[in-house]
Amino acid sequence: MSQFTNVDLQHRRLAAMPRGVGVMCDFYAERAENARLWDVEGREYIDFSSGIAVLNTGHRHARVVQAVQDQLGRFTHTAFQIVPYESTVALAERINALAPVAGPAKTAFFTTGAEAVENAIKIARSHSGRPAVIAFGGAFHGRTMMGMALTGKVAPYKLGFGPFPGDVFHVPFPSVLQGVSVEDSLAAIHDLFKSDVDPQRVAAIILEPVQGEGGFNVAPAALMRGLRSLCDQHGILLVADEIQTGFGRTGKLFAMEHFDVKPDLITMAKSLAGGLPLSAVCGRADIMDAPGPGGLGGTYAANALAVAAAHAVLDVIEQEGLCTRASTLGARLSAHLEVLRVRFPEIAEVRGLGSMIAIEFRDPQSGKPDPARLQQVQRKALEQGLLLLACGMHGNAIRFLYPLTIDDALFGRALGIIEQALQD
Ligand code: PMP
């Protein structure tokens, strides 16, 4: 227990920090271990948020902690662009070998997810000499200017922050519940080519293989295939934003491995470094080499502590079989949720891939999104010590982002709490 109380800290936060940094919980973290987190008053929570999909290997995995401690004993920062170090070269080599990119790959490191997205677009523009980018409704690509421009949800992400970079276009993402088919999505791109932008001016199409903030909407295989052939036809680059889907979450190291087509560029961050800030763009070597020396980088890009953590994360995913574990846990969760869907008709859909599973709440009579019901379930679960995150265009879906290292007993306890929260 610490010397602080949650109420005191809440007062201090509201006085000292702007409201724009929206905070979900009114309790404050003291320590955490794998899938458990304790607040400053000693209350225990099961963490089904993983710091927004960052902790696929859990809080403070022993291997990650050890790797960071070892690196602390050597150096913390030189700026890779000033004095480089082997660990980062080795991490690029590892990612190049693992990422599902066609042909030889190269990887550049950055610090945040949004920065990876910014740089993927910079690289795509530099390579193609074209300006325009197509993204999807419901997409989330970050809070920087280009990240916001690409994001397909206005409130709260874009409200009051424009103008955004131009030449960004959105088309609808396929969704059974919203009545949008793959054909509709692809037709919308063809319409764009007629009404808004010549395909010869389009540098890239960017999408999340499973939309994260947008509600865990899985890209149908036919969409991915359709996009790949459109891209090939017009010389457009296909960019997969794997910032939320990466590092085992969907049952594969990268979600793009579920599809039979390959992207040209992949952005990654979050679970890459198990809680330390690190992001990357991996892509076809010829594309990655387009920007000139000095065009890419950042003071903290490839931070030595974060790179050390990333090596440990990749070791843990492999040695503990976390991709298989993601499929096993996801199947168990989905089966449980499907049973609950029969009892609770407000659960309109159980969807996802691997351990990237969500349920969406809609009013059974009107079919309208029901964020109020979600908030009620989320509150009830929290009262019983389970931390759940919302997502979706209407804030009416719950996503289950547990560490993939969670043990069976704690996972079972969490499933019981979900059931109880729906019942109450
Ligand atoms: N892209 C996707 C798919 C994301 O889920 C996120 C973060 N939720 C981002 C980009 C932005 O990452 P960051 O918050 O690290 O800038």
Task: Give the key terms.
38% helix; Aspartate Aminotransferase, domain 1; alpha/beta; binds 4'-deoxy-4'-aminopyridoxal-5'-phosphate; Aspartate Aminotransferase, domain 2; 7-stranded mixed beta sheet
Tell me what the structure shows.
By secondary structure, the chain is α/β, with parallel strands linked by helices. The protein has two domains: 158 residues, Aspartate Aminotransferase, domain 1, CATH 3.90.1150.10; 255 residues, Type I PLP-dependent aspartate aminotransferase-like (Major domain) (Aspartate Aminotransferase, domain 2), CATH 3.40.640. Helix content is 38%, strand content 17%. It is built from 13 helices and 15 strands. Helix 3 runs antiparallel to helix 10. The longest helix is centred in the last third of the chain and has 22 residues. The radius of gyration is 21 Å and the shape is globular. The two termini are 30 Å apart. The site of 4'-deoxy-4'-aminopyridoxal-5'-phosphate (PMP) has 15 residues, from helix 5. The site of 4'-deoxy-4'-aminopyridoxal-5'-phosphate has 15 residues, from helix 5.
Q: Give the full name of the CATH homologous superfamily of the largest domain.
A: Type I PLP-dependent aspartate aminotransferase-like (Major domain)
Low-pLDDT residue intervals, each spanning 5 or more residues? none
The level-1 CATH class of the largest domain: Alpha Beta
Q: State the helical fraction.
A: 25-40%
CATH topology of the largest domain: Aspartate Aminotransferase, domain 2
Strand order of the largest sheet: 4-10-9-8-7-5-6
Rg is 21 Å
Ligand names: 4'-deoxy-4'-aminopyridoxal-5'-phosphate
What is the CA-CA span between the terminal residues? 30 Å
- What's the architecture of the largest domain, going by CATH? 3-Layer(aba) Sandwich
Number of helices: 13
**Shape verdict:** globular
What is the arithmetic mean of pLDDT? Answer: 98
- Strand residue content: 15-25%
What's the count of strands?
Answer: 15
Give the ordered list of helices and strands: HEEEHHHEHEHEHEHEEEHHHEEHEEEH
What characterizes the major β-sheet?
Answer: 7 strands, mixed
Structural classification: alpha/beta
Q: What count of domains describes the coordinates?
A: 2
